[in-house]
Amino acid sequence: MKLFTQLFLQIDASTKINDKLNALYHYFNLTNEADKLWTIAIFSGRNPKRIATTTLLKTWAAELADIPFWLFEETYRIVGDLSETISYVLPDYTNSTSHALHEWILQMKAMEKADEATRKDFITGAWKQFSKEERFVFNKLTSGSFRMGVATKLMVKALSKHTGLHENIIQHRLMGNWNPYEITYHQLLFASSDEDEAGRPYPFYLAYALDDEQLIADDTSRWLAEYKWDGIRCQLIKRKGNWYLWSRGEDLITEKFPDLSGIAKSLPDGTVIDGELVAYQNGKVLPFNDLQTRIGRKNLSAAILNQVPAAIFAYDLLEFEGQDYRNKPLIERRQQLERLVNTSEHHGFVLSKQINFNNMDELRMIREGARNVAAEGLMLKDVNSVYEVGRKKGMWWKWKLDPMSVDAVLIYAMRGSGRRANMYTDYTFGVWNEAGELVSFAKAYSGLTDKELLEVDAWIKQHTLDKFGPVRTVVPELVFEIGFEGINTSNRHKSGIAIRFPRILRWRKDKTAKEADTINHLKTLLK
Fold first, then answer.
1. Please, which of 88, 176, 286, 399 could form a disulfide with 378 given CB 3.0 to 4.6 Å?
2. 155, burial (CB in 10 Å: exposed 0-12, middle 13-18, buried 19+)
3. Phi, psi of 307 (to 5 degrees)
4. CA distance 429 to 431
5. Which of 228, 238, 328, 381 is catalytic?
6. Is 238 a catalytic residue?
7. pLDDT for residue 171
8. Backbone angles phi, psi at 2, to 5 degrees
9. CA–CA separation, 408 vs 339, rounded Å?
10. How many CB atoms lie within 10 A of CB 482?
11. Residue ranges of E strands in 352-437
């Protein structure tokens, strides 16, 4: 645990990539294999389950520190982080622990079904064995909120340097549905089973946002253009007679889409397709919200499968008949992919359309019309590009549409979390309905500068009309421009509208609340 805490402190203390890389490399050289495994798991988002609620942790910490609960709460509001608050309000103890990271995690696992008294004894007993820094890290683990400023790619580089394995091999083996409780470090990186390999996806190739049109205009002939679909990036895999469907977030979603099994049946063994999972009916892509109705259901009825049929818009071929195609030029991969789609009779297996254009003016016009086909913009790919790992600059670009936007009025505010816990930074916005009332339609908390956040927070505290728990109703005066990527009708919202990825574009100090937009204006954006 001491080594893991030292690693945390070294990474947290630096913004330099090389410092973090060296810290990881030295840690992997020093620690045992079980701790290496759990470090990989935690840094890739596989945290231990939370074993105590926030309320219980606060109550136990206040008792152990021998301070009133209200004083702990006030301290927490000022500090802004529960794990840090607990680590500092507790006194220093002379006890120390020699347990390694993995030993503590296995003890946490044993506490998952224990009664409250047993869990309290375990956690408070652990607090007494740690330094302040170790206590902070332990709190993050027990509360299920551990986050570390390390990209997976950086951890892969450190592991590659430590093990001698190629980065691509490590990246591939870290993908998929592996469980740190059921596998060893050696099995994960060096001895993956045939069954595991059969269902394992490749690391996804990600595009950068296009920030200079001249990159395309200089030689338009080298670029393949296609729509950027508003769905779920996925890989469909068929190996050893079985099929698997993975999202880019490394979720195995095969069971959510049984209606796509026919695609797999039409593919030869040893095939991996990269594409976009969309809701698709009568030749049209349906709104992303429709697709979400399937993701969120535990049981898929025949009715929902009929109402929201799924499809894969295929745009790349990563493996064919067991051969890795990723180092072949895109134009060659796409030709083989087109043959596969054409020989399949499944209506949900669609080749992502290649867009023909002669110059940048034509391409701009096509991009502007992307929303008419339920797309978010365009993808531009070098026809000779290989399929890379992760986000690489130069060969693949995403050229998204500018966000839609409306002017809305701030009507509710709530305190933020972490370093924002003492400020009102989470906002609810409203627009006018036909009766002249403000109706909430969106929540947003990003887009303002630190200076603006302080200004808005001070204004909220001086213009509160009512309080409902952590939420404040405020005087409806401030107007903000809210940007978003998509809009749909919704029965779950009072406004009848649901928007995707809302964020604050700017504070409209030049507008009064009466000049904000209306529900009717929002509805015109649905078309």
1. 399
2. buried
3. -75, -35
4. 7
5. 228
6. no
7. 76
8. -60, -45
9. 49
10. 26
11. 354-355, 375-382, 390-391, 396-400, 404-415, 424-432
Neighbours of 56 (CB within 10 A): 14
What integer pLDDT is reported at residue 196 of this predicted model? Answer: 60
Looking at residue 411, what is its pLDDT? 94
Q: What is the pLDDT of residue 195?
A: 58
Residues counted in the chain: 527
d(C-alpha 387, C-alpha 184), whole Å: 30
The DSSP string of 223-242 is EEEEEEESSEEEEEEEETTE
Give the integer Cα–Cα distance in Å for 50 and 138: 11
Q: In sequence order, which ranges of 212-301 are alpha helices (DSSP H)? A: 214-217, 261-265, 288-295
Q: Amino acid identity of 449? A: T
Tokens 């973090």 belong to 20
Calpha distance 189→184 (Å, rounded): 9
Question: In the prediction, which pLDDT does 326 show?
Answer: 95
Which parts of the chain sit beneath pLDDT 50?
A: none
SS3 assignment, position 298: coil
**Res 34: pLDDT:** 93
Domains identified in the chain and CATH numbers: 2-142 (1.10.3260.10), 205-400 (3.30.470.30), 404-524 (2.40.50.140)
Helices (H), ranges, 324-386: 330-343, 360-368
Q: What is the pLDDT of residue 194?
A: 58
